[in-house]
Specification:
The chain is of the alpha/beta class. The chain folds into three domains: about 25-160, Alpha-Beta Complex (Conserved hypothetical protein from pyrococcus furiosus pfu- 392566-001, ParB domain); about 180-290, no CATH class; about 310-350, no CATH class. It has helices at about 5-15, 50-60, 65-70, 95-110, 135-145, 165-175, 180-205, 210-220, 225-230, 235-245, 250-270, 275-290, 310-320, 340-350, and strands at about 25-30, 35, 45-50, 75-80, 85, 120-125, 130-135, 150-160. This is ParB/Sulfiredoxin domain-containing protein. InterPro entries: ParB/Sulfiredoxin_sf.
Length: about 350
Amino acid sequence: MFSSRDDLILATLSNSQKLHSESFEYKSLFLNLITPDETNARFLPCVFIENEHARLFVERRLSKNQLVEIYEADGKVIIGKDCIINCLKYGTSDWRKANQSIESIIELGENISVSEIIQVPTVYPLEDNQYQILTGHRRFFALIYTYGLDHAAQFKVYDSKPLLYKVKQFQENASREDLPQYGKLQAFLSAMLEIEGIDQARLKIGEKKLTVREKAKNLGVSMGAFDNYNVLTRYPEVIQAYEDGLSASFVKVKKIILECEQEYKALHDKKMLGAGDKREIGEQIAARLLGKKPTSAKVKSYNVKKITQVDVLKKLLFVDVSTLDTNIDWGVLDWDDHEQVNKALEGLLEKLS
């Protein structure tokens, strides 16, 4: 019996099985048997209500507060037939993000009511005849909004939880142009954790890690797209900006990231970047994404304190001070170290005074 995902991957590789060969079939399932995946980037904290309660709310015979009390829905989104209510704290970023999701769910629900879903949601079985959403959260929410909990709909049903279920979620998110960038980046990070699990499993059985091309193939994206995702997820500030509502294209943001990195390397004469360097670059990227002009790097200078004695000034101008007995070893002085040079200048002026 295997106890972890990595063990399952190892077993799959050892038996020369394909990682994406799970069996599935299409089934009609009642919506009240389906559970959303809270770890999915498309997850919306929600509670589903009975059709009768939804009808009473639409007819204004049941209030929002009453529904919140009945379903303990404070801090969640209530979803039922023909009603969807944002119960998150008003004005917060979570409330605003939920509103955006609600708008897209309502629009999708309107489309579903007049035409079939082209790509049905996918699920896998849990215990007690329940199922969990793998892909298609918005479509699932839209089905409940359109038809109510008691309705049955078509689903793609896997025999069991897919071994690389985060990879499968990413494959769908990456191919959907209508999904927010934040969700795609989160899905990529989750999928890459599973890809790293494959690498570790391959090492255990004496094989090499996946090549970049193989990783891109496993994720179902081109080499160019894979590079884009790698660059975009390099800095948490970028992911946070998208979570906060940034709508700039991946291409534009990637260009900003690469420019900030190149400018930093040139300014500090570095070829490799450490953790501290990346923190500074992340701050610069965040400022650029907010539309702030990059602050000019403070140029270090050599400082000479005010000279009040004319004879000291004359010695500086007309005497080779390096030949004087000042206890300063000019030969070992690091002239690129501004702090060291400034201390030497300060000591020189004291000797000349």
